[in-house]
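Q: Hi! First time doing this. I have a protein sequence and I read that you can turn it into a structure. Is that right? Here it is:
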Amino acid sequence: MADIKVAILGFGTVGEGVYRTIHSHEEELTAVLGKKVEVAAVLIKNKQKQRNISENILITTDFEEILSLPQLDVVVEAIVGKEPTFTFLKKAISKGCHIITANKEMFAHHGKELLELAKKNNVSVGFEATVAGGIPIIQTIRQLLKINQVRQIQGILNGTSNFILTEMREKKHSFAAALVQAQENGYAEADPTNDVEGFDAFYKTMILSKIAFGIEPNWEEVEREGITSISIDHIEAAEKLGLRFKHIASLNREGSHLVGSVKPALVTKSHPFYHVEGVDNAVCVQTDIVGRISLQGPGAGMFPTASAVIEDLVYVVQNQHSNLKLYHADNDHDLQKIDDAKELWFVHGLKENMINSQITWIDQITEEAIIIQATKQELEQLAAKHESIRFFSILGDYETKNKNKAEALAAL
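A: Yes, that's right. Below is the predicted 3D structure, encoded as structure tokens:
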């Protein structure tokens, strides 16, 4: 019985976590796969750095040395950036290796090509670790897609942003202070742009789109906004209304269109994301048969991500292939466009005398923090006239704190 030979590209947090998990769960992997899993090689950047890796394992800075191994079954990629990782994985597939990646930026750009190449070479691609850390959302959607049609996906997909928003609300920290805390805890990089400006969550959203719908929105049309503009004043005003800020990625079917966004929003106590705090991630999937499924768990860290990679290791060794299928809207009526739909909004910096007759006043807790009902287009027109206005959509059921005033205004 031949062992399963694995190469790990990169030995940072994720790569080391995978290495350690393969050793700590050796018996469990053997029981499931019927073969022993053995790390044969590790690709590193700096040979001078001390690492706790067994002496019988090839440690190299040259990927070609790994490709030349007499037996290589699986390549696990845990590096950052689109290149040279994309090139490495193409070569591994061409050699007949299964591949597993935790690289969301690379896979968002090149996943389709890798999947097509893998199919031609009769190998599998595992990419659970590219989205939501240890939450098995990709495997869950793969199962749902057999019969259920996915209609909507919402997710908190970046643990760093969620941690910062939690720190700002619970400890009354400024954004800058909360970011420093995230960096000190190892949740944020020295350059946190990908996390706090929404790029990380954007890439993950595009990957989820391919899995759930077989297509993705036009990248240029996806609204992407980070959390850097959220102030402690916004958070405290929202909290008085029983609302919490979350950075939420959304994918919605609208007739024959797929609409995506990655931006801050406010959730009510009825929304499943209300209690998702710290570095946790969460994903809600709405389908036509089972309804809503919610998953929550650690979105980052050595072992949550390693868990996703190890589950993918089992998946690819069993040589299962992605069952992506395109969404067809032939039998669906066209849904109302988001810009034309009345929604609830939390608006900061808006005074009642600025509101026109098309906008419905719902609630108010401070002089500048108001909840209104309006279309997105109406709010954008209002914000164009008043630059101080900031507005955020509200998700979940909201009950006004000031029923008497709301009823009086509604009667006018």
